[in-house]
TrEMBL record:
PROSITE patterns: GHMP_KINASES_ATP. Signal peptide: none annotated. GO terms for biological process: galactose metabolic process. Residues 241-317 form the GHMP kinase C-terminal domain. It holds the Pfam family GHMP_kinases_N. This is Galactokinase. The keyword Kinase applies. Residues 46-131 form the GHMP kinase N-terminal domain. One of its GO terms (cellular component) is cytosol. InterPro entries: Galactokinase, GHMP_kinase_C_dom, GHMP_kinase_C_sf, GHMP_kinase_N_dom, GHMP_knse_ATP-bd_CS, Mevalonate/galactokinase, Ribosomal_Su5_D2-typ_SF, Ribsml_uS5_D2-typ_fold_subgr. GO terms for molecular function: ATP binding; galactokinase activity; metal ion binding. PANTHER family: GALACTOKINASE-RELATED, MEVALONATE KINASE/GALACTOKINASE.
Length: 340
């Protein structure tokens, strides 16, 4: 979780600080947000990008102070940047622009990452950070969500505790950076594959068999991952809608990781080792999460088996000379909002 405490000031200075970055507080005139961007500490660009985007859209924001605290590890594939941007966006909205709706708020947070930070992310992480509800998984249709003023998402019941299950998040400690090259390269490859197939997006392809026109083997693998992953998402949603035992989604989690490893090629030796250790020690399913090239895995486990799975992953990573991972439990919770 990331928390933000904010206050308005009568001057024109924007101030941001973080308990995790005590020596990297920033204070600058609101009008200098665009000209001073490249001189800012990396973490500060996220909340200041949010303020800059509010201003770009015509919301009159001047003196402002935002202080952050959080426990989401950076670079772990757990959407820490989206959490930071969304915490900032909710605070700025509540303090300065209460008419902003959730859809625009999500787009403001996305634009901060894309345009101010330079990370080519979509809206998935920001939408989840704002829209999720307790005890549910969020099913997001990005095209429908962006195109309309309502709809485009569904809350799917996801009560793991009632089924005697836990969803472990295991941070391998191998960090990544979406503002780097790998993530952007995969997006460009997907766009190239869609163009070669004559469609606007790979989501317009319904079956893997429709990819036969792709002669470039790399683009074929990238596209096959996207098409098969969309199928897996729909299959998970269908199972959960029907009230199936959540254990049944385990093989789909496994299939997702295998595709990310072999076709999208964004996994790593460390992630693969962690996933294999989780699977062979009792997890019903396990996969990497996030944009890849490091980060975390998730493992769906029986509550009674959580300890042995955690131990198995720790021992496997130690065996390949990697440092000790950190384990959390993911609990379906409500999205960002005021505290108290």
């Amino acid at each position: 979780m990331v928390t933000c405490v904010g206050a308005r000031h009568a001057d024109d200075l924007v101030r941001v600080s973080s308990r995790q970055r005590p020596g990297e507080s920033v204070r600058l005139p609101a009008g200098a947000l665009s000209t001073e961007r490249d001189l800012l500490p990396g973490w500060a660009r996220y909340p200041l990008g949010v303020v800059a985007e509010f201003r770009r859209r015509g919301y009159g924001i001047e003196g402002l102070e935002l202080d952050f605290d959080g426990a989401v590890p950076a670079g772990a594939g757990l959407s820490s940047s989206a959490a930071l941007c969304c915490a900032a966006a909710v605070a700025v909205r509540d303090l300065c622009a209460p008419t902003v709706g959730d859809r625009e708020l999500i787009d403001i947070a996305r634009a901060a990452e894309n345009d101010y930070v330079g990370a080519p992310t979509g809206i998935l992480d920001h939408a989840a950070s704002i829209l999720c509800t307790e005890g549910h998984a969020l099913f997001l249709d990005v095209r429908a969500f962006v195109a309309a003023e309502t709809g485009g998402f569904e809350q799917i019941p996801f009560d793991l505790a009632a089924a005697g299950l836990r969803l472990l998040v295991i941070d391998t400690g191998q960090t990544h950076d979406h503002a780097g090259g790998g993530y952007g390269t995969r997006r460009a490859e997907c766009a190239a594959a869609a163009s070669a197939l004559g469609v606007g997006s790979l989501r317009d392809i319904d079956e893997v068999g429709e990819l036969s026109g792709l002669t470039d083997p790399v683009l074929y693998r990238r596209a096959r991952h996207v098409v098969s992953e969309n199928d897996r998402v729909r299959a998970v949603v269908a199972l959960l809608r029907a009230g199936a035992d959540p254990r049944e989604i385990g093989p789909l989690l496994n299939g997702g990781h295998d595709s990310l490893r072999d076709d999208f090629e964004v996994s790593t030796e460390v992630l693969d080792a962690a996933v294999d250790a989780a699977r062979t020690s009792g997890a019903h399913g396990s996969r990497m999460v996030g944009g890849g090239f490091g980060g975390s895995i998730i493992a769906l486990v029986d509550t009674a088996d959580a300890g042995q799975v955690e131990d198995a992953v720790r021992e496997r990573l130690a065996g390949i000379g990697f440092h000790e991972p950190r384990t959390f439990e993911a609990v379906p919770a409500a999205g960002a909002g005021p505290v108290g």
